[in-house]
Each structure stands twice: as C-alpha cells, then as structure tokens.
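Incident log, support desk, overnight shift.

02:14 A customer reports that sequence design results differ from what the structure should imply. Their input is reproduced verbatim below. On-call engineer (initials T.W.) acknowledged and began investigating.
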C-alpha cells in the first residue's frame, strides 16, 4: 500500500508552482529543477497515485481536480513542517531559514520511527531500516534544523523539545499527504482508516452508534477507537495520531483545539440494587457518611463530585478512571459512585444498579467533539463527524422515551 513518504517531497513541493504558473518550464525554474526532471517527477507521482494530475496541452498545463486536491494538501503538509521547525525569537542560530524545504521523505520516515521507538535499535527493528541509516537521517535533520533533536538519557535516547515539535509536525504532514492521496483518487466511500479518541461516556452509546451507521455505508473503512481520558488523548489528537476526540468538553481547552458540543449530560449517584440507601430518599449528610469509588483527581467527574460536598468530601477508598471497574465494584459492594446514566445503561435496564434518589444541582456537563484547530477532514472523516451528531440526537431521544 502506498504510504505518504513513498512520494518524493521535492516533486510535491513543485506541484504548487505548476498549479500557480500553468507551465512546466516556469514551474521547473521556480522549483530549481530542470524541465525534464519535473516532467519525469510528475509522471512518477501520477503513476504512484494512479490518477492524472495535469492535462498537458500546447499552451502549457492545467491541473485536474486530483492535481488541485493533492497540491493543496501538500501545501498544508509543508506548512506543518515549517511550523514545527521555526522557533520565534531565534537569532544567530545554526541551520537554514526554511529547513522544511530541504527535508527528504526518507529522513522524515526514519525520524518518525526513531521518535516512536525512542532509540536507533528499536526504530530499526520496527521499520526494517538499518541503524546507521536511521542515525544518519536524524543527524541530517539536526543539521538542517540547526538544533539537537534527540539526546542520550541513561542508556536510551529521548527527544528534545525541538525533536518533539518536529515529530508532531511530521505526523501531521503525513496525515495531510495521506488525505491528499485519498482526495486525488476521489476519496472513495470504502477503504482508508479513521482514528477516534473515545472518552468514557462517549464510548458507551454515541461512538458505537455512529460507527455502526458509518460502517453500513462504508464497510471497507477501518475505524481505530483509542480509549482514554482527556489527558491521555489530547497529545495523540494534537500529534495527528487520532483524528477526532469525543467526550466531556473543557472550559479552557488548549488554543490549538476546537470544540463542538453534542449534548449535555446530567450526572447521578448509583449503587447496587440492595444497597441500604436504595429505593429511599436520602440527604447529603447520609451520602457524606458513605464510601465512594470515583475518578482520579484532576478529572471533571471528580470535580463535580467534590463540588457536591462543598469541600467536605467523604472517604474515597478507590480512585478509578475505568467505568468497567467502577461498575464491578459498585455491584459487589456498598460503594457509591457518580456517573452518567449512559455509562451504565445496561446495568440500569437490568436493575443490577439503581439510581440514588437525590437531585444534584450543577451536575451537568457538555459532551462534544474536539479537533485540531485548522483540521480539514476528508469526506469520510466529515461523514463520521456528521454521524456523531446524528447519534447524539438519537441516543437522547431513546433516553427520553
């Protein structure tokens, strides 16, 4: 299968010149290539992707829809690399003024393997490339960028801040090129891969329902569902490892993140069906005398729980971010918990767990979609986002019936 860095970056850079100038001769001059070399390079790109990028005629060349799509995505890819390598306020530093223009696909692919493995031996084992080849690629990128990208820490290697920035830029660039190849081919309804970051509530009802709808339309697409908390998923989202994140929105998200609300969720207290407080009205003082299993410190769910007791919370013998573990503990003990009804819908339907009768003012949180600012989804990705909106409506209607 064709991968983003199987494409020649120099020829991809020249695509923008060809689109703008409509002439191979002028585009070759602007790109610093000979006209035969550019012609041969464009022909290779067309053969690799399997589509015609330009219509050739006596007056020059005209980009096809595929050529325009790939050129635009390539421009976005190089913008990610530029953003990752240019540091504000840097004066008198080593390196080149536009390092992204000098990088090769071989170097970037090797660097990604190195950053994932945090070492030359692991990168070689994972990629099939030689250790000397990976070492050479990393050192060449350091020369181009004018800064260290990795440093030895004990017996291993770790990325420097500049190295982490470059790794993020390379992943985002690879994502843009992959999208460009899909769009150039017409972004078919089947095939490809989409990654969703699913926080605990979203993976109970909304994400499964949206994926089920999507796969009925596009059965050949592979959906990766990456489970985790917001803190576990935010970096993979920013790195481009996942495409969208679904779950509780933050009041003050990072500036690189856009948030769109899906629905509001009202939390409630739950216990096993034979709990001493089940099927009776309770007071806050009675709840303060109980033991609880709740999420870890720093999570929105924990903040809601602490606000409930106004600074005088009851004991928490178990802190846990896994809804599966929480459900098991509550069903087998007298522990109470604070969750969304969506997260334990099956247990509520079968009366294995019951709601404790106490109104919880202020226990509402917004569930939604988080994406990278400036993210431009492919048609398939946008369809999945649309289905997440549809699934949120459908699950709310089902809940209220």
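02:41 Re-run completed on a clean worker. Output:
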């Amino acid at each position: 299968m064709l991968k983003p860095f199987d494409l020649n970056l120099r020829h991809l850079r020249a695509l923008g010149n060809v689109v703008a100038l409509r002439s191979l001769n002028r585009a070759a001059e602007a790109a610093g290539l000979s006209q035969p070399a550019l012609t041969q390079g464009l022909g290779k790109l067309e053969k690799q992707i399997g589509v015609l990028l330009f219509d050739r005629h006596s007056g020059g060349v005209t980009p096809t829809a595929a050529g325009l799509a790939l050129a635009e995505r390539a421009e976005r890819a190089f913008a990610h690399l530029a953003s990752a390598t240019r540091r504000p306020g840097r004066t008198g530093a080593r390196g080149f003024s536009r390092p992204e223009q000098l990088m090769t696909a071989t170097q970037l692919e090797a660097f990604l393997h190195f950053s994932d493995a945090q070492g030359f031996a692991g990168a070689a084992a994972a990629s099939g490339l030689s250790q000397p080849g990976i070492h050479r690629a990393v050192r060449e990128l350091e020369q181009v960028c004018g800064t260290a990208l990795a440093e030895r820490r004990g017996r291993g290697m770790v990325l420097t801040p500049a190295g982490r920035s470059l790794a993020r830029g390379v992943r985002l660039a690879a994502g843009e090129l992959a999208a460009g190849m899909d769009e150039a081919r017409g972004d078919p309804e089947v095939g490809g891969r989409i990654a969703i970051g699913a926080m605990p509530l979203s993976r109970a009802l909304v994400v499964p329902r949206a994926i089920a709808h999507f796969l009925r339309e596009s059965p050949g697409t592979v959906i990766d569902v990456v489970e985790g908390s917001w803190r576990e998923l935010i970096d993979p989202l920013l790195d481009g490892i996942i495409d969208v994140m679904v779950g509780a929105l933050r009041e003050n998200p990072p500036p690189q993140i856009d948030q769109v609300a899906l629905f509001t969720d009202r939390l409630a207290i739950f216990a096993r069906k034979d709990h001493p407080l089940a099927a009776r009205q309770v007071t806050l003082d009675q709840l303060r005398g109980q033991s609880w299993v709740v999420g870890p410190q720093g999570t929105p769910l924990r903040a809601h729980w602490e606000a409930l007791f106004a600074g005088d919370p009851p004991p928490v013998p178990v802190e846990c971010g896994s809804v599966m573990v929480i459900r098991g503990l509550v069903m087998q003990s007298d522990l109470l918990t604070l969750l969304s009804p969506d997260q334990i819908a099956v247990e509520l339907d079968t009366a294995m767990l019951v709601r404790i009768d106490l109104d919880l003012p202020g226990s509402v949180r917004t569930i939604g979609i988080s994406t990278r600012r400036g993210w431009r989804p492919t048609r398939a990705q946008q369809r999945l986002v649309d289905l997440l909106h549809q699934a949120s409506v459908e699950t709310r209607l089902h809940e209220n019936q």
